[in-house]
Each structure stands twice: as C-alpha cells, then as structure tokens.
Automatic annotation (TrEMBL):
Species this protein is from: Capsicum annuum
Gene Ontology terms: biological process: coumarin biosynthetic process; gibberellin catabolic process; response to light stimulus; response to molecule of fungal origin
Name of the protein described by the UniProt record: gibberellin 2beta-dioxygenase
Source lineage: Eukaryota, Viridiplantae, Streptophyta, Embryophyta, Tracheophyta
InterPro entries: DIOX_N, IPNS-like_FE2OG_OXY, IPNS-like_sf, Iron_ascorbate_oxido_reductase, Oxoglu/Fe-dep_dioxygenase_dom
Keyword vocabulary terms for this entry: Dioxygenase, Iron, Metal-binding, Oxidoreductase, Vitamin C
Length: 364
C-alpha cells in the first residue's frame, strides 16, 4: 500500500523542513498495482520504502553482525583495510575533493572475486565475511532487479528486463557501502539513562585518541561540548541506477522534496528504502528525478549504521532513454553516455554537485 495523505508541511525559520508519509509499496501486492505505485513514487519523490521484499531476515542479520564486528575493532586494525581508494575502509573523508562527514565506512565491489580478496583485510574469519556479504549482495541485487522489472511494467515497456539486465549483467559495476555514524549526545540534555545506555556510551566511538597513539593526527570526529549539530553525510544524489538502503533503528536520514523541503525519514530496520539515482533519471529522460538526501547528527546514545547496495551497469553500458520513453517526450534531455564516462565525472566533482548537468542537451 501507499500512505496516501502526507502530513502538512512545516516551516521553521529560514530552513525548510517537512514531514510526510513515506510512499510504501507492498511487493506481495498484485504486480500491476505495485508497478503503478512504484512509478508514481519515482515520479513524485524519487524515493520509497518496500515491504514484503523477500530478503530473508537472517541474511540481513548476518550482514549486520559482520559490519558491527568490523567497526568494533580498534582503529589501527580497521585501518589495515584502507585507505579507501575508493574501495576499502574510510574515515571522515568522502571522495577525493574535500568533502567530509562524521562517519567511518567500508566500500566494497559487489562481486564474489573482489569480496573474497577484501575479506582478508576486513575480518579474522575471511571466508565467513565473504560468504555473508555475497549472500546479502545476491539478495538485494535480486530485489533491485524485481523493482526495475516492475518499473518497466509500469512504464509499459515491451521488454520488461530492459533496466534490470543492466545490473544482472555479470560485468555490472555495483558496489556495497556500509556507513557507521558515532553516537551524538547533545550537551545538557538531562537524559535519564539506564544500564543499557551506559553500555552504549562505553561503545561511544571516537577514533582520535587511538589515531594519535598510532602517530596519526586527525581532528576528533566527535565535536566538543557546546558545538552545533553535525552533518554525518552531506547532501547528494546517488549516481547509479538504484540504491537499496537498510539501516538500524537510529534516525538521521533526510530526503529533499522537489520543492526544496528536507524530510526526515523514520528508520525501519525490517524494510528497505529505495532511491532513484542519476543514471535512472537519464534512463527515463527526466521522468524520474534522482533524490537528494543527507544524514544529519541526532541526539542518540546509539550509533547509526546503514548498508547501501548501489546498483550500477557495466562500465561500457550506454545510459540513454529507450525509444518508448523518448517517443512520449518532445526531445532528449540528456546526451547518451556510458556509465564509465559518467563515473569519471562523478569522481571529479564535489559531493553536492549536479553531475547530469554535464550531459544535458543545451537546447533544453
């Protein structure tokens, strides 16, 4: 089902914020109904949640345990899996162009050979880490393919696999990212915590002291008392076709609506959130719009952890809208480009930049 009636928009000072009912699609519904709802959600928000998605709970739980175990290690041990260039372990730095966030992360190529190699630096039990990660990647890739085939059906495409074949291709360039955001306790919050909260505080992650001991100098990830709230991951769109996100029960994710309102998204550790990416915007000739999103710091005794599967085509795959879509619009908004071309542009720009601008036909 789709939550039909958003709550009223709320304005706070000069900043725009909003609350709304997250479009929620039940994948056990009749396919014609689900496909219509997905297309509408992609058009209206570029974002939705799926329930009854078919990914086994044990597959999700095992992946989360492996990630929690990795991030619980001392910074020196985690550092052996980095620096991220772009794959591997990263801390604070996002990309290569000066963007920073209050997080640590791992970025992995979503293919068995690469995962097997990376597992040797990620875990004391590489074979288990590799098997668990492969199981998770396979499950969410299937989910992404199912969604893309429903989209093709909803757009009345003759070939229902026209989008899904791009990521089911054995040469696909998809990747898996796991972000870990430290707890953030606001000063003077007068919070009455219990023993469980003390346990969370004992796990309060601040790598700066350990980094100094290792002879590395880095500004503390946790701000000093009295500092303002932080940005965990700055605003951006995802360049790939689709993003399949699952997080724990800690909030912080926000999406930006088409009219510029930042919308807090309540976490749901049992379900998946789906983002339209830049490549899907181009594949639909602008009918879908990639959704801008960010993660902000929140008052919590618990860390936030999210896992994103970025569904991408092979590097040599051409990104251009199919004729059936182009025929319904007067002209092509974007010049055709390969995913490899687009990826080069992505790496050359800042996080918040609009990469599709480089492929827009000037006549538009």
């Amino acid at each position: 089902m789709v939550v039909a009636t958003p709550t009223p928009l709320l304005r706070r000072g000069t900043k725009k914020t909003a609350a709304f009912g997250v479009p929620t699609i039940d994948l056990s519904e009749d396919k014609s109904i689900a496909s219509e709802m997905i297309v509408k959600a992609c058009e209206d928000y570029g974002f939705f949640k799926v329930v009854n998605h078919g990914v086994p709970k044990k597959v999700i739980a095992r992946m989360e345990r492996e990630a929690v175990d990795f991030f619980s290690h001392p910074i020196a041990q985690k550092g052996r899996a980095g620096p991220a260039a772009p794959f591997g372990y990263g801390c604070k730095n996002i990309g290569f162009n000066g963007d920073k966030g209050d997080l640590e992360y791992i970025l992995l190529e979503a293919n068995p050979i690469s995962l097997s190699q990376r597992a040797k630096t990620m875990s004391n039990d590489p074979s288990t880490f590799s098997a668990v990660t492969n199981d998770y990647v396979s499950a969410v890739r299937k989910l992404a393919c199912d969604i893309l085939e429903l989209v093709a059906d909803g757009l009345w495409m003759e070939n229902k696999s026209i989008f899904s074949k791009l990521i089911s291709n054995s040469q696909n360039d998809s990747c898996l990212r796991v972000n870990h955001y430290p707890p953030f306790i606001a000063p003077n919050n007068n919070y009455n915590h219990n023993d469980n909260d003390d346990e969370e505080l004992n796990n309060h992650w601040d790598p700066s002291s350990e980094l100094v001991e290792e002879g590395l100098h880095i500004s503390p990830l946790i701000p000093a008392v009295g500092s303002k709230s932080r940005v965990g991951f700055g605003e951006h769109t995802d360049p790939q076709i689709l993003t399949i996100l699952r997080s724990n029960d800690v909030s912080g994710l926000q999406i930006c609506s088409h009219d510029g309102f930042w919308i807090p998204v309540p976490p749901d550790p049992n379900e998946f959130f789906v983002f339209v990416g830049d490549s899907f915007q181009a594949l639909t000739n602008g009918r879908f719009t990639s959704v801008r999103h960010r993660v902000v710091a929140i008052n919590s005794w618990k860390s936030r952890m999210s896992m994103m599967y970025f569904a991408a085509p092979p590097l040599d795959a051409w990104i251009t809208a199919p004729p059936q879509i182009n025929n319904s619009i007067s002209s092509n908004i974007y010049r055709p480009f390969t995913w490899g071309n687009f990826k080069q542009i992505v790496y050359s720009l800042r996080l918040a930049d609009s990469r599709l601008d480089y492929f827009t036909n000037h006549a538009q």
